[in-house]
Amino acid sequence: MDYFEVCWSIFSTICLVNVVFGILVCEITTFTVLAAVPIFSSAAGAIANGLCYYVYYLKNPVINEVVAAVFSDFFWLLQEASLLLYSYIILQRVLRPKQWRVFSILFWTLMVLTAITRVFIAIYRAKFLIEGVAQFEVIINYLHIGYFTFMAISECLSAYFLVVIFASAKTASMSAALKVGLLRYLTRSTEMRVAFLAVLGVVRTIIHPFQTPGQKAVNIASQLDRFLYCLFCLYPIVLYFDTLASKLRFNEDRSIYTHSDQAAAGNRYGLSTQTRCYTTTKSNYASKMYGPDTPGDRNTSQEQIVPANGSTRSGVSEVEMEDMDVEGFVIRKTTEVTVT
User: Fold this and answer.
1) Dihedral of the CA atoms 22, 319, 172, 244 (nearest 10)?
2) Cα–Cα distance between 209 and 295 in angstroms, integer?
3) 206: pLDDT strictly greater than 80
4) Structure confidence by residue, pLDDT tens digits, 180-201
5) CATH 1.20.140 fits 3-245, yes or no
6) Where are the domains of the chain?
């Protein structure tokens, strides 16, 4: 069968395009560890799907098929497991030490179990290609159930901690969130975008027991799984949006600080300005107001989650940040508010 007549070619092409998009995003912003995660995942997915076509849709020597099948399982593991590192890197910088120890132990335990399960899948796939026993495909199907279960638990674990952080930020600045609308606030939240990955993992775990063994999508469950895997291949694009949004927020913050300095200088000539800074520490959440509060002023409200003992300028806590790749356990979200 021709290459572009099967779905694996489409999956591989999507992953290749994602790699190109990732390089473009890095050119627009800067190369960071967070930006490298979706690029690495997409590259691994492109190789894995190409090898799958080589194994199941072409006639090759058995030894070649076995080697290609083992490598395809290895690259599928890299594709699916590496995306979890996106949440891991963010949480590494924002969790309290005790929370981080609990999360890291659970996370790496689940990752090891996931890798072990994938190794057994590769072993039985090789035995099936060599011996041709249909029972091995049934075993592979059951192993996939365990594999996706461990993946889903890992994704839900990361999503839980991310949503907890999001809820804390929303509580600390509820009034600002309501003024811009809750839906827009959720959409612009990094935590909710990343946590959506958990939904894909859970659904794939639920439907996998109903699939038929083998690589052919001959029933509804198998076709639905292909659809969900296609969404998984497209998911790095969401992370690219997240990277670009982080860069935009960073530039907006710099612009706001510059405007604040200029406005402070303008106060000497009878002008008035208002700056709001919602400051949240790792152990104590609080909201503070800085600057004069003159009715009728119109300005921009900045929401930040920064260490309370951070550097200050004009009495406002300030932390430079780009793509979450900074020290100091920092997350920021920017919401535009009109003060009347």
Assistant:
1) -20
2) 63
3) yes
4) 455 455 556 666 777 788 888 8
5) no
6) 3-245, 249-332
